[in-house]
Specification:
Layout (H helix, E strand, L loop, with lengths): L1 H14 L2 H4 L15 H21 L3 H5 L3 E3 L16 H25 L7 H24 L3 E2 L11 E2 L1 H18 L11 H15 L2 H12 L10 H5 L11 E5 L23 E3 L1 H6 L10 E3 L2 H4 E2 L4 E2 L22 E5 H16 L1 H11 E3 L3 H5 L3 H15 L6 H8 L21 H7 L15
Antiparallel strand pairs: 1-5, 2-3, 4-9, 6-10, 7-8
Helix pairs in contact: 1-3, 3-5, 3-6, 5-6, 6-7, 6-8, 7-8, 8-9, 8-13, 9-13, 13-14, 13-16
Family: Belongs to the SusD family.
Keywords: Cell outer membrane, Membrane, Signal
Protein name: SusD family protein
C-alpha cells in the first residue's frame, strides 16, 4: 500500500490532474507515507509544474482589479474592483492555492522525514519546498489576509487564522528557505537569491525595513543579475530560453499539455482575448515626464504596440507583432522575481535623499534622458512616492503588482472605481468554503455579505 500511495502522489504532482486535485482543499489532504530521496526529487519536479499553475491562475487579477485592463468580448469589467463571495474566479484562486499547497506540504514533510543529516542536494529540495510555501502564503495573505494555516497535510478541518499569524507563518517559511538554499545557478530553479528576493517582498509588505534592506542588498551585490539597458533586452525577459540577466527566478512554463499561454488572456482589442490594455494606460503610461526630465522610456516599445493597441510584453507568436521573436509563444516564462524590483524596493525604503543614487542607477537603464541626482533629492516624500509608484507601474505592467502596490502604500486614491468601498482591498472568503466549514471556522471578511 505504501508504494501505491507514493506512486499516486507523484502521479498527481507530475500530471496535475485537475479532476483529482480539485478535490483537495484546506479541509482535506493527500495521503502520504515515507519517501526515498529519489522519490522526493521526483515530487519536487511535479511541484514546479503545480506552482506554474498556481502562479498563472492569479497572474492577471491585480492588473484588471487595478484598472490596467479593459474587458474583451464575453468578459465584463465595468467595475473591476468589485468582488463577491460567490465569484467563480475567487473560488478558483482559493482552491488552486490550497491544492498546490498540499503538493508543497508533501514535499516538505518528505524532506523533514529524511533520516540522518541531509545532503546539500536534499537541503536544496527542502529549501525549495519552504520557498514555495512562503510564496503561496504571501499570495494568499496579500489577497485574503485571514486564511487557514496548513503546515502539513491534514484531513481535518483547519480553521482560518488571523492575518498576523498568516504573515508570521510566511516569514518563518522564507527564513527556513534562506537557511538551507544554495546559490544561484539557473534562473529556472529556486536559489538562495530567489529566496532573498521573495524575503524582501514579504518584509516590504510587513514594513520591516531592516530585513528588507538585508535581503535586497544581498541580491544587488550578486553579479549574476544585471538590469536590461535596451528595449530589446527588456523584451527578452519574457522570451523562452533568452536567459535574461534580469531574471532572479522564473518558471520555465514548458508544457506539452495544459499550456499556460499569456497571449490567450491578454493581447489586444481583437475578440479572441479576455483583456486588452485600458485606453488611458495605453495612451499615457510611458509618457515623457517633462518636469523631472524622464524621457524616452525604453520599456514602452517592449510593452505596447501601436498595432491595434496590443500588449506585446508577452509574445503572441505573430510575426511582426513582437519586439523580440520567440521560438514558442506558448512557453513564455512565468517570471517570479527580477533585479529591477530590488532597485525600486531599496529606493522606496531609503527615500528621496538617501535613495536618489540607487533610483538614478535604475533610471539610467530605462530612459534616454534622466533627472539629476539633485532633482530627485529635492522631491518631497509624497512626490517621491508618486515617482516610485509610477516607476513600478511602468516596470511591472501586466505582471500582477499594481493592485497590491496601491494597497500596501495606502494610495487608494489611485483606484478610480473604488469609490470608498475600501473593504474590497481584501478578497472575500469563497462562499462555498464557508458553507462547508461553517461561519465559526471560516468567518467572512468584513464588508461582504454574511460578515459579522
Amino acid at each position: 500500500m505504501k508504494k501505491i500511495i507514493i506512486f499516486l502522489t507523484l502521479l498527481l504532482a507530475i500530471t496535475g490532474c485537475e479532476s483529482q486535485l480539485d478535490k483537495m482543499l484546506p479541509r482535506n489532504a493527500i495521503p502520504l507515507d515515507e519517501m526515498t530521496a529519489d522519490d522526493i526529487e521526483k515530487l519536487m519536479t511535479g511541484v514546479y509544474a503545480e506552482i506554474e499553475r498556481q502562479q498563472f491562475n492569479g497572474w492577471f487579477d491585480f492588473d484588471y482589479k487595478a484598472e490596467n485592463y479593459k474587458e474583451g468580448p464575453g468578459w465584463v469589467l465595468t467595475d473591476p474592483v468589485m468582488m463577491t463571495p460567490g465569484d467563480g474566479d475567487i473560488k478558483n484562486r482559493w482552491q488552486t492555492s490550497f491544492v498546490v499547497l498540499n503538493q508543497v506540504n508533501a514535499l516538505i514533510e518528505s524532506y523533514e522525514a529524511l533520516s540522518g543529516a541531509p545532503t546539500a542536494k536534499e537541503k536544496q529540495i527542502g529549501g525549495t519546498g519552504y520557498f514555495f510555501r512562503a510564496l503561496i502564503y504571501y499570495d494568499m495573505a496579500i489577497r485574503w489576509g485571514n486564511v487557514p494555516i496548513l503546515d502539513k497535510q491534514n484531513e481535518n478541518l483547519v480553521p482560518i487564522s488571523q492575518e498576523e499569524n498568516v504573515w508570521a507563518f510566511t516569514e518563518g517559511n522564507i527564513e527556513k528557505a534562506l537557511s538551507i538554499l544554495q546559490g544561484f545557478t539557473n534562473s529556472y530553479y529556486v536559489s538562495l537569491e530567489a529566496a532573498q528576493a521573495l524575503a524582501a517582498r514579504i518584509y516590504l509588505a510587513r514594513g520591516n525595513k531592516t530585513k528588507v534592506l538585508e535581503n535586497v542588498n544581498a541580491v544587488l551585490l550578486n553579479n549574476n543579475f544585471i538590469l536590461a539597458n535596451t528595449s530589446e533586452e527588456f523584451a527578452s525577459i519574457y522570451v523562452t530560453d533568452a536567459k535574461s540577466k534580469e531574471t532572479i527566478f522564473g518558471l520555465a512554463n514548458k508544457r506539452s499539455t495544459g499550456q499556460l499561454v499569456f497571449s490567450q488572456k491578454l493581447n489586444d482589442v481583437d475578440p479572441t482575448w479576455d483583456y486588452s490594455p485600458a485606453t488611458d494606460v495605453f495612451q499615457s503610461l510611458f509618457a515623457d515626464d517633462n518636469i523631472l526630465n524622464r524621457k524616452g522610456d525604453r520599456r514602452a516599445k517592449a510593452t505596447f504596440s501601436s498595432d491595434d493597441k496590443r500588449v506585446i510584453k508577452f509574445p503572441n507568436g505573430i510575426s511582426g507583432q513582437q519586439l523580440v521573436p520567440t521560438p514558442d509563444q506558448a512557453n513564455t516564462p512565468i517570471v517570479i522575481s527580477r533585479i529591477a524590483e530590488m532597485y525600486l524596493i531599496k529606493a522606496e525604503l531609503l527615500g528621496p535623499v538617501d535613495g536618489a543614487d540607487i533610483l538614478l542607477a535604475f533610471l539610467q537603464k530605462r530612459y534616454d534622458n534622466v533627472p539629476t541626482n539633485a532633482a530627485i533629492q529635492a522631491l518631497s516624500e509624497s512626490d517621491f512616492q508618486d515617482l516610485i509608484l509610477d516607476e513600478r507601474h511602468r516596470e511591472f505592467y501586466g505582471e500582477g503588482y499594481w493592485w497590491f502596490d496601491i494597497k500596501r502604500t495606502g494610495r487608494l486614491d489611485l483606484l478610480k472605481t473604488l469609490n470608498g468601498r475600501n473593504y474590497l482591498m481584501y478578497y472575500p472568503i469563497p462562499q462555498n468554503e464557508i458553507d462547508l466549514a461553517g461561519t465559526t471556522a471560516y468567518p467572512q471578511n468584513p464588508g461582504y455579505a454574511g460578515a459579522k
